């Protein structure tokens, strides 16, 4: 309510159109990604390339954060936007590999078929590396916890430093929504979707999503905040090879 009562902040020679576009695209991309998120066993939309759609919408949010940082024509905001570009580039590749590995295990990129393939055994059980890489990269894609350098205090707020009022509310609300959607998508990919004993499918989905989201929120306090170079290097040298190795193991199992 306090943000709603504040006027927007103006900077010299700002590109207001692109700024508003970038701010609005963050929640819009999260909502579009949620279109293929199953509530139970079937999503609202179930295209044959649902996994690719989800990953593409995350990439759209990646571009939106950079636009929000670039448009105000502010040095600190611009640095925050470029920080997110570096972070997104480093963690998007292992994130994409982890998501694709789940599709490889199911033999399909359709989200409902990935869920159906886990009736007997969750993918998190025999794809633990892909599951761990997904959760870690989800934190980075939502710039949450130890990965919040794009909004760092050393930049007085980074990409959001020049945002005030409704603009700031929409941007930060979109960040929260992105975190919730990425947490929710771990359920159909690795935790069997709505499959479970006794309880209805929708309730199982809610419980699993809440558990993953709680884990990601706890990570904000449990994981230390490091310099960007300290956590960008492991993304390239550890997470990418680990995700590739997991994909290779899954491919061998599927072929056999």
Automatic annotation (TrEMBL):
This protein's membrane topology, according to the annotation, is: Multi-pass membrane protein
Q: Name one Pfam family in it.
A: NADHdh
**GO biological process terms held by the UniProt record:** aerobic respiration
State one molecular function term (GO): NADH dehydrogenase activity
**Annotated Gene Ontology cellular component terms:** plasma membrane
Give the keywords, sorted. Answer: Membrane, NAD, Transmembrane, Transmembrane helix
**Where does the signal sequence lie?**
none
The keyword Transmembrane helix is annotated on this UniProt entry: yes
User: Where is this protein localized, as stated in its record?
Assistant: Cell membrane; Membrane
InterPro entries attached to this UniProt entry: NADH_UbQ_OxRdtase_su1/FPO
Span-the-membrane segments of this chain are 21-39, 59-82, 89-109, 121-144, 169-191, 203-223, 235-255
Family from the record: Belongs to the complex I subunit 1 family.
Q: What is this protein called?
A: NADH dehydrogenase
Q: What lineage does the source organism belong to?
A: Bacteria, Bacillati, Actinomycetota, Actinomycetes, Kitasatosporales
